[in-house]
Amino acid sequence: MSAKSAISKEIFAPLDERMLGAVQVKRRTKKKIPFLATGGQGEYLTYICLSVTNKKPTQASITKVKQFEGSTSFVRRSQWMLEQLRQVNGIDPNRDSAEFDLLFENAFDQWVASTASEKCTFFQILHHTCQRYLTDRKPEFINCQSKIMGGNSILHSAADSVTSAVQKASQALNERGERLGRAEEKTEDMRNSAQQFAETAHKLAMKHKC
């Protein structure tokens, strides 16, 4: 069983919560934490997890989970409601980066994900969850690559496709209208020529009768 599956089963399932995503992280700037603050258990792995309750109304939260060295179990540490998240900073919008910051109402953390792709996946899930479950004040996503804002990218792509299709259809109609206009002009010219020919032929016929 993977670490994330184990976290979901051990930390969130007993509370009737569903884990949507998680990213393994390390601090970019280490805090000076007293030995007793970690329970005297030494080194540990840290995961930032996003979860929602199964019961309605749905509540979403971000939880810091740790696994201490030599232990197979996980420990729930800090937790914030999603409404407390104020800003998500992707650090660099122009390249793949594993670094990111999370700003809450009462906390600020600077992290480095295990990989840039893992951060990207977590950000996509986080952005989608904010759009779905937060109705009032949504967190600000800054310095994020366009691919991270998955939903918006898809919508923008679809909108661009529709706009392009409309423009092509309009152009085709205009071209067709121009062709029809030219055809009508030619038809009118031919009708006038035929009428003139008929009148000339009639005059010649009357002249020969005389």
From TrEMBL:
Gene3D superfamilies with a match to the protein in the record: 1.20.5.110, 2.30.29.90
Biological process according to GO: exocytosis; Golgi to plasma membrane transport; regulation of SNARE complex assembly; SNARE complex assembly
A molecular function annotated in GO for this UniProt entry is:
phosphatidylinositol-4,5-bisphosphate binding
SMART domains assigned to the protein according to its UniProt record, in alphabetical order: Sec3-PIP2_bind
**Keywords, sorted A to Z:** Acetylation, Coiled coil, Cytoplasm, Membrane
Entry's Gene Ontology cellular component terms: exocyst; plasma membrane
Q: Name one Pfam family in it.
A: Sec3-PIP2_bind
Can you tell me where the transmembrane regions are?
Answer: none
Q: Where in the cell is it found?
A: Cytoplasm; Membrane
The V-SNARE coiled-coil homology domain extends over 151-210
Subunit structure, per the record?
A: Part of a ternary complex containing SNAP25 and STX1A that can be dissociated by NAPA and NSF. Interacts with STX4A.
Name of this protein: Syntaxin-binding protein 6
The gene for this chain is STXBP6
